Amino acid sequence: MALMKTQKEQIMRKFRRGELDTGSSEVQVAALSARISQLTEHFKVNDKDQHSRQGMFRMVSKRRRLLNYLRKTDANKYLKLIDELSLRK
């Protein structure tokens, strides 16, 4: 259920700030969004999987905190990121 290595690398290449960037806020939010969308599809089939659902809620909270940080530090990057990931404000 985790992201495949190739998927992670594609996300990092698309959202990184520099050549060696793997942990910036943008990359973390994009990786969490991909994982959350995978889990959302998982719950359409496995609606009684409450343990994974709790983990997904934690991921959503972490993504929200990262987005709040990004909005405070650089509003332009925040707006660009939520537009690219098609997230709600």
Question: What is this structure, in a nutshell?
Answer:
Helices cover 74% and strands 0% of the residues.
- In total, the number of domains comes to 1
CATH superfamily, by name, is: S15/NS1, RNA-binding
Q: What would the principal axes of the Cα set say about the shape? A: globular
Radius of gyration over alpha carbons?
Answer: 14 Å
Beta-strand portion reads: under 5%
Which class best fits the helix and strand makeup?
A: mainly alpha
SSE run: HHHH
Mean pLDDT: 95
Q: Look up the CATH topology.
A: Helix Hairpins
Helix fraction? over 70%
**Termini separation (Å)?**
27 Å
- Biggest beta sheet summary: none
| Number of β-strand runs | 0
Return the CATH class. Mainly Alpha
Question: Runs with pLDDT <50, length 5+?
Answer: none
Q: So, CATH architecture?
A: Orthogonal Bundle
Number of helices: 4
What does this protein structure show overall?
- With 89 residues, the chain is mostly helical.
- It has a single domain (26-89), classed as Helix Hairpins, CATH 1.10.287.
- Helices cover 74% and strands 0% of the residues.
- The chain has helices at residues 5-15, 25-45, 50-73, 75-84.
- The radius of gyration is 14 Å and the shape is globular.
- The two termini are 27 Å apart.
- 17% of the residues are buried.
